[in-house]
Amino acid sequence: MRRVKKTVHVLQHTPVTPASGVVNWCFDRFQNLSVVRLDESPRYPKIKDVDLLVINGAEDFLIDPEHLTNEKKFVQSAIEGGVPCLGLNMGADVLAHALSEKKSRKSKAKQGWDQITFVDETKYPAFNKMILSEIASMSGFYHRSRKSVLPTECVQIAKTSDGDTAAFLYDDYVMGFYFTPELNPHSITTLASYHDIVFPISGGEKREKIIIPDDFDKGKSLLDLSLDYLIKRGKHARSTKRKAY
Hints:
32% helix; nine-stranded mixed beta sheet; Rossmann fold; two-stranded antiparallel sheet; alpha/beta
């Protein structure tokens, strides 16, 4: 029997990084949702049953070689099978590992808000038109201590205030955001408390009330637009791939 609804599979690394924005999107769009907890002896789904794959972020997870190796193999199979993929925060690093041999090395911590500007990349005009007409720039929340890399054969679709890659797109169906678009004031405060994040202020670094920018809700719009875009790419992407797992 042909499936009417599509199934979104979320790879969730830790309890503190729930996919609440993706859950809300699935509810609003009447799509099926499946969450794979990678910290609880995960059982990966069959590639043919995945219509859209979302990889949530958790930096500590990247230092576990066994977990990262298994996840990388699954994500590579999904990409080869033409499954649209979205990586959020450290989930973008997982995609970068799967797409190329470039490694996201340790660097100066990037924590808190930064200005994200979307690039007018004409290689994917449909995506450019959708994003640039709605969100030319926005505040993005970072919690990273790794250098953001641009994977092989990917295009930069957004950059940070200092010019680093903030988001990339591969072959019009694999997308990574090195920041976390789905956070809201409550979840940001919870995340900061859990990880003991210290936000820099004038005069040194110390615990301070987190300032939420006025345009923080653009993150939800970006997540919704990106999921809307990717869920439509599945059929096209699968038809252009020679090998499906």
